[in-house]
Amino acid sequence: MTTLTQRGTTRPATGLMKAVVVHGPGDLRIDERDRPVPGPGEVLLALEWGGICGSDIAYWKKGASGTASLTHPLVLGHEVAGRIAALGDAVTGLREGQAVTVHPAQLVGDGVLPERIAGRTNLHPYVRYFGSAAFEPHTDGGFSEYRTVPAPQIRPLPDGVDTQQGALAEPLAVALHAVGRVPELRGRTVLVNGCGPIGSLVVAAARYRGAGRVVAADLASSSLAVARAMGADETRDLSGGDGLPEEVDVVFEASGAPAALGPVLRATARGGTLVQVGNLPGTAAPAVLGDLVTREITWIGSYRFVDEIDDALRALADGLDVTPLITHRFPLDRAEEALAVAADPDSGSSKVMLRLTGEA
Fold this sequence. Notes:
The chain is of the alpha/beta class and 360 residues long. It has two domains: 3-172 and 305-355, Medium-chain alcohol dehydrogenases, catalytic domain (Quinone Oxidoreductase, Chain A, domain 1); 182-301, Rossmann fold. 21% of the residues lie in helices and 31% in strands. The protein has nine helices and 22 strands. The protein has helices spanning 54-62, 163-166, 169-180, 197-208, 221-229, 261-267, 290-294, 308-317, 335-343, and strands at 3-6, 9-12, 16-24, 27-34, 42-51, 64-65, 68-69, 74-75, 79-87, 99-102, 105-107, 127-129, 146-150, 154-156, 189-193, 213-218, 234-237, 248-253, 268-276, 298-301, 326-331, 351-355.
């Protein structure tokens, strides 16, 4: 019997694999599925690490994420990395055994955009994304032992960047895209409100892009500790009576809480910039917005990323350390426990990782 060896783990080539599949609200299973075979232009990945995101938690708890709802089972996960197990016909420039991550977005249709947003493929109205129920059939994610991926979505990992770090290139790309929405950060004072995984990565991205001083604010002391480890110069514990600083040049709102908008706008300097990174509700919610007008604040949205996953890999190769973000690791068979820890505000978790093959 043939075997596949990856990072010291040998698995019989039985033709089956395990996958983390959500079947409905609260119904998560470790299913056995046929191991896929790469077609022309595709790559078969033996996946090693996956990071749990808020959308994974939403599908597990509610059967929906944003406006996308489950109509059939879905493999979760869009923050993944592993090694190439096989190449389909006509794939060049890649090799078996190579450590890679994945750009999880694939445009549907011709990809043509209006001139005003030319090149901003994250704003294309039809995008298939790993682990998303937005389309029929749904687009399975990468929380599985193997997955086929179109070769153009493969991103080789630089030397010195392992697959655990590589699985965090996707959320780091989200943070770098947010930071890139401000033309120049060098030397400027930055506030990051909300220090979950994305907020803490925004701290790191702002520091990497040359921000002069970075202040981080959150309600949880554990999140603030991660933000400090990721490069924050100062932290504000909003649960302990600390307020937000005043007259901050550039503010990144990463909590997605409507109640935070009033204080965050007040913290933004007159004529300053507020970048909305945290997803706001798709339904009506009260918020105090008066300062947007009277302080002439520029309020900018930030959604996913374009090709900043390439920038993220360069940053990791340059030594940007994302490991302080990782607080928990679980094997694939304990995926539901991992999701519960990631969803529990009292667990002290930041980024929870799944070891998709081998031991966590």
